[in-house]
Input
Amino acid sequence: MAYEDFLVQKDMDFDVLRGEIFIIMGASGCGKSTLLRHLIGLKPPVTGEVFFDRQNLWKLPQRERQSMLLKMGILYQSGALWSSMTLAENIALPLTAHTSLRTREIADLVSLKLALVGLSGFEGFYPAEISGGMQKRAALARALALDPEILLFDEPSAGLDPISARRLDRLIVHLSESLGITAVIVTHDLASLLDIGTNSIFLDTETKTIIAKGPPDMLLKTSTHPTVRDFLTRGQSSKSTLNTHERTR
Amino acid sequence: MQQPQVDILFEPSQSARVLIGGAWHIGQNCPRADATINQLKSLQGLEIVRLESQDLTHWDSLLLTYIRALSQFCGAHEITLDTSGLPEGVQGLLMLAAAVPERQDAGRREDLNDGLSILGRHTLWLIKDIALLADFIGEAILGFLRLLSGRSQMRWGDFWRLVEACGPHALPIITLISTLVGMILAFVGAVQLKLFGAQIFIADLVGLGMAREMGAMMTAILMAGRTGSAFAAEIGSMTVNDEIDALKTSGFSPMDFLVMPRILAMFVTIPLLCLYADIWGMIGGALVAAGLFDISASEYLIQIQSRLRLIDFEVGIGKSAVFGILVATAGCLRGLLCQRNASSVGLATTSAVVTGIVYIVISDAVMTLLVTALNLYKR
Output
């Protein structure tokens, strides 16, 4: 993956299985969000392939790729709700465009999705009129609009207080268990990823490739790579360079 | 507060002690690292430099930059720098600054600033810009074909809302500007015409000027400043906020959804605004003619009616339709190309107005040539 001459990551090979809560983690600037853009059809890889449901995503013609992408729901970092529309209109838009449901049915579905994320009654509000945490939940409701098979989250807990972040985590787990949705989460929120992650990859900024794979709690116990250990223990392991600084004070 | 100072003592066994004292504050005249380094250079084969700070009373970042400069010098010349004689806080901060190694590939290349390089950079940028415009036009044509075949994702509700924003809401300012332009044309022309006693031809001048050219151009420039920039700002803000990406991943084409209604709304409203501007321009001319040059309103009207033909208005309105498409294109294109940071929306807006006006003038030149070549004004 690269932006013109600037290499972001290389030699990436990983699988996301159905039903997993898959974490993509790494330090800031390692290319996590860029990787996500490759997976959701916004940026083609310089070399390599992305397979979704056994289909080579980037080899498909535009039209078929678009219909594949409708099976994915995406929660952007800032929510990315359409600011000129109410929450109800935001969720209704994909429904109106991609299904032949009647207005009444769509309105019912919109109410359902908002209720699932705990925003019942906020249908007529504009994104600017609700708090950041609520915007994220509304954006999640929109991501769920077409009953996707896979949800992708870009830093879902960014800007949320710890309680809201935990509520969102619980919601993700609940959806995964009850609806069988696969979740791919780009995050560096340790508490979240150790709590709910079932599998993960760790992207490294220096070597620009994946340096660890596996469930986050297992990596915490067994990984020997210093960067990964530092990350997962928040620099509190005995060998961490951060701690030598602590001692001189 | 004591003056900040540095004393260097050279010791046997190739070492030097640097005694730092006084109050080192940004406001004070603190010793510079270069001077110290020059003095240190004077000793050949220097191996170790010790820093001591018993007489140091206050310090802030200035001391840190001084020591960092010394540290760099020592690092480059394989001299050991002993910082244990410095206050704990200073040592801690120095360690913190050195903790994360400097990222080698993150530095940007220094851009050369001589005339030729600037010209080169601007040319490359212009070529890239033209390529982006060509890309956009291609997509727009595809979008338009989709619209004709009924397979577009454009929402007609958006279209009508935009028509209202482009058209009726612009009437007040167009009235003002075109009346004034008509008055200016009349005045500028009349001063010369009066020398020949030909004031009556003010009517011709203003009438033909507004109908063929100025109505279209003034309206288009106004719309570029008013509506073109609004389009760029709306779409630019959406880009910054990831809303365009969200449209794409929800299966919408930003071209169909955002750009098509805007281009169409502009295309439909601008000819009407142009005609409106033409009329007010001629009224402006009449005001000057009647007020300053003794030409009555009925004389003016008769003169216009005898001189102006339908073709004059047709050319003007046709030009304005083309200008409208160009202004909307410039606005939407700049909005979509917006970078993802706050200042970009401002840049996109400015760029939309400027490129809009450039497109207007270039296309005007082309169309005027065409009109002349096709001899459209022949009686």
User: Anything to note?
Assistant: Residues 100 and 116 of chain A are 23 Å apart (CA to CA). DSSP finds ten helices and ten strands in chain A.
